[in-house]
Amino acid sequence: MPPAPRRTHHAAPPREDVLAAAMATIAARGLDGLTMAGLGREVGMSSGHLLYYFRTKDELLLRTLEWSEDRLGAERRALLTEPGTARERLDAYIGLYLPAGHRDPHWTLWLEVWGRSQNADDDARARQAAIEGAWHRDLVALLAEGVSRGEFRAVDADRFATRLRALLDGFSVHVTVGIPGTGREQVLVQAAEFLDEALKKAAD
Length: 204
Description:
Order of helices and strands: HHHHHHHHH
Shape: elongated
Largest sheet: none
Number of strands: 0
């Protein structure tokens, strides 16, 4: 009797590959197109295998968001250390913060995670807060630098950052869902006008 054929075990792809595939699926087909079964086919894993690693779709979405934020965080840190004025770097920060356009996959994912956070556990909420905190701390530092260098009028950097991010979040929702009159370029202009008005020194 011939020996039984040997089973071939396929190693699971690196977790980063799975998260990249999830984001690519969101970009191509939206959140409705992201299913455990479909993602499994993309990366050569069963949906059960994916659930073993991520437990729930909520966890998959949050992990994908964290992976995307890690990449954006690297870009943000790089632009904040570039030479130039604080205002030039603030404009660059805002450009990175805002969606690239209608159905931007990162912001589409953010909105979904936000929506699910009402029923999230403490760990998930803490991880979302960590993402928000990183953006906030960098903005506070940038505003404080602009004030100390005399580029901006004296403002409470933490309070101003909170208000500015609320403004940017609102605009970002409009851009992502495609509300007429609030495309990315229009929002960039409005954000620049707001900064001109809010940070302009009286002596100017």
